[in-house]
Every structure is written in C-alpha cells, then in structure tokens.
Amino acid sequence: MRVLFRVDASVTIGSGHIMRCLTLAKALLKHGAICHFACRNNKGHLIDLLQQAGFKTLSLPAELYCEDDDALATLGLIIEPYQLLVIDHYQLGQRYGKLMRQCCQKIMVIDDLANRPLECDLLLDQNLLPDMETRYRSLVPASCQQLLGPRYALLREEFYQPHCQRIPNHLLVSFGGSDEQNLTSLAIEAIASLKSLPVTADIVIGLNNPWQVSIKQQCAQLSNVQLHIQTDAMAVLMQKAQLMLGAGGATHWERCVTGLPALVVTVAENQLATTRYLDKLGACVWLGSPADISKKIMAEKIEYYLQQPELLLSISKAATTIISNDAGTPLVVRQIINLVAEKT
C-alpha cells in the first residue's frame, strides 16, 4: 500500500498536523505501507523531521495560493500512483480532492473544522462535540465513512503504556510546537513567583518556537524547572505530572488517556468548542484565551488546584472516561486497511 500525506507545518500553523500524521504513518509502516509526505517549504516546515524519521518528503513551494496550484504542484512531483491520499489541511477542500483523484485510489481527510465541502472516502475528526454526528452530513459524499470523536484520536503507542507514579506538585507546561503568544514564558514567570509552594516543572517547546532563546535563559535561572525541546518523551512527562498548563487541540486526547488534569488556554478558534465541552464535562479547566491570562492569574490557578487533590482526582477520572484503551491509532489503521482493500 502506497500512502501520500498532504500536510503542512509552519511557525503560524504549528506542528500538530505533522505530528498526528507522523503517528499514523509510523503505524501504517508496521503494516507494510510505503508512506510519503508532501509539504510546503514554509518557514518552520519540519520537512527535516519527517526525513529523519525515514519518510520521503516531496517539497512544495511555499507560495501556493489556491487549491488548483497546490494540486498541480503535488501532481508534478508524483511518479507512481498512490492507493491512499491523506489530507490534513484546513486550506484544502473538495476541489483539491477531486483534482488528486487522478493519482490516488482513495482519499482520507483529517479535519477539525467542518467548514467546507470535502472530497473523501474516509473522514477523521477526533473532536468531542455535542453535534459531532451531524456536522459533516452535507459536507462529505454520502458514501464517505466517518470516524468521529476521540475514540479515533491519533495517539502514539506509548500513551497507552502503564502509568508511572505522579510527582506531587509537579507541573507540565506545553503550549504547542510554536506558541506564537509565548504563553510558555508567562507560565515560567508564574511558576517562579510561587514562593509558598514547592513546585517543580517540565517545560516543553517545539523546534519552531520563536522564543526559544529567551525561554532557555529563563529556565537556566530556575533550579526547579527542566526544559525539553521537541521531545519524544511526552507520554512519560504527562504520566508523572500532577497538573498541566497547556493549549487545546490534539493534546487534549493525550491528556485524557493519561488522566492528567489540565488548565487549558485556547490559542486558536478551532480549539474553543471542544475545550468548552471538555470543561463542561469536568475533564479539564478552561482558563479562556491568551487575552484573559496574566502571570498573576496563572500563578493563582496553579496554587489553587495543586492544593485541591480531591478536585484534581475528579478531573483525572472525568478525563479517563473520554478515551478507551482499545481504540485510537490501531482502530484508524484497521479502517484504512479495509478501505484500501475495497474495489473502486
């Protein structure tokens, strides 16, 4: 099975789309699939990361302004047809999918927005929303199979491993691969201001974080924090933390499967609905948007929740009910194998 992933990363887009596609590609690789990527050469593209992981990557120009241009550029680099095209891109919709049919037997779309018509045989939206069963009804073909909800979250295998012991008063801070608003620095300042509570913390940032130099300087001045850049140990870091400060998005499902309580700041419009709903279910605490947050507010929230062990336990229990241990990436892989095996 030959699979092509059309996905981008950049300082603006972040790294989330690439990381979840990389998780899926590695899982498909175990089933004998040949996986390639097609990515725009944006600032912060992460093409090197994909190549280091062993995946051939087709480099597309950064200046692709419409779906037609994107499809033509991609088609021009394809030598052999693919059995499956996986599209994880908010700017690509029905037009792109139809143009790519000429070299791809089946199409899978990974989406979160439900804001445009899509051309696909398989749709994956891992978000938990009250209307998730009906959101795509008029946006995908009637024959399209829909994989909806966190049951299909693309999580790496290590997140399902037995949990290690949580460390009291230990925090995990991670606001995504780019963190354009630099909430990481604000969190470090908040941690440094906690004089009455003995707190330790793991700080996680991505390769694309534009504040990397200043964050390194901040962490070097504090003996109770450790900085991790583009870490592969996220599952372990989540399992040993007592509380997390972070953004919404796909990280929600990593937190849920590890039962990690979280204070969440939504840094993008597409994070709002799911974060609000998880907050309503008691599976996280939504603090608002970056405009609602200050060092003082963050410090007060950290101090309050770390001193409420029963409340943290309640959040943890609510989070672990969201995703079962028998689902996730392996379930998605089975659906893909069945799809590709079907006759067109």
Task: Produce a short descriptive summary.
The protein is an alpha/beta fold.
Provide the fold topology.
Elements: E1 2-7, H1 16-29, E2 34-40, H2 47-52, E3 56-60, H3 67-75, E4 82-88, H4 94-100, E5 104-110, E6 122-125, E7 145-148, E8 170-174, H5 183-192, E9 200-205, H6 212-220, E10 225-229, H7 234-240, E11 243-247, H8 251-258, E12 262-265, H9 272-280, E13 285-288, H10 295-306, H11 309-320, H12 329-341
Parallel strand pairs: 1-2, 1-4, 2-3, 4-5, 5-6, 6-7, 8-9, 8-11, 9-10, 11-12, 12-13
Helix pairs in contact: 1-12, 3-4, 5-6, 5-10, 8-11
Description:
This protein is an alpha/beta fold and 344 residues long. It folds into two domains: 2-155 and 325-341, Rossmann fold (3-Layer(aba) Sandwich), CATH 3.40.50; 158-320, Glycogen Phosphorylase B (Rossmann fold), CATH 3.40.50.2000. The protein has twelve helices and 13 strands. It has helices spanning 16-29, 47-52, 67-75, 94-100, 183-192, 212-220, 234-240, 251-258, 272-280, 295-306, 309-320, 329-341; strands spanning 2-7, 34-40, 56-60, 82-88, 104-110, 122-125, 145-148, 170-174, 200-205, 225-229, 243-247, 262-265, 285-288. The strands form two sheets. A seven-stranded parallel beta sheet has the order 3-2-1-4-5-6-7. A six-stranded parallel beta sheet has the order 10-9-8-11-12-13, sandwiched between helices. Helix 9 links the parallel strand 12 and strand 13 (285-288). Helix 5 (183-192) crosses helix 10 (295-306). It is globular. The mean pLDDT is 95.
